[in-house]
Amino acid sequence: MEQQRLNTTLVYVLAILALLCCCFGGSGFILAGIAFYIAHTKLKEAKIYPENYDLQNVKAMNTAKTIAFIILIINILYLIYTIYKISTIGWETIWEDAMRQAEEMQASQQS
To answer: Helices 55-89 and 29-48: crossing angle, nearest 10°?
Structure first.
């Protein structure tokens, strides 16, 4: 019987996109969670039927799962930080600071 390959590309792509989405208030936890779930279910299937999967592919998927987990933790921590910042400082203050910085950047580019 031919051994099946575990496709780690999808997990890596979702994890990298999740890392990029971390800049948006930790919203990348959704993509990182999906990547982690996919890797976890594929590894569980490979554990049940080890004869159907190549050992190298299982190791690669395990690495992809670890990366997705780390990025998931980073996103969750940043999401908690964002929620804390909004609840303590307030949304209006954060928005005013962002607008002031945008105006300063625009003024510096014009001169």
So the answer is: 150
Q: Tell me how far apart the alpha carbons of residues 40 and 70 are, in angstroms, rounded to a whole number.
A: 14
Hey, is 25 helix, strand or coil? coil
Environment class of residue 42 by beta-carbon count within 10 Å: exposed (0-12), middle (13-18) or buried (19+)? buried
Helix 55-89 with 9-21: angle, nearest 10 deg: 20
Check: CB of residue 6 under 8 Å from CB of residue 41.
no
Instruction: For 38-78, write each residue's pLDDT tens digit.
Output: 999 999 999 999 999 999 999 999 999 999 999 999 999 99
Q: Residue 17 and residue 8: Cα distance in Å, rounded?
A: 14
For residue 34, count other CB atoms closer than 10 A to its CB. Answer: 18
22: helix, coil or strand? Answer: coil
Cβ neighbours of 66 (radius 10 Å): 13
Q: For 12-40, write each residue's pLDDT tens digit.
A: 999 999 999 988 888 999 999 999 999 99
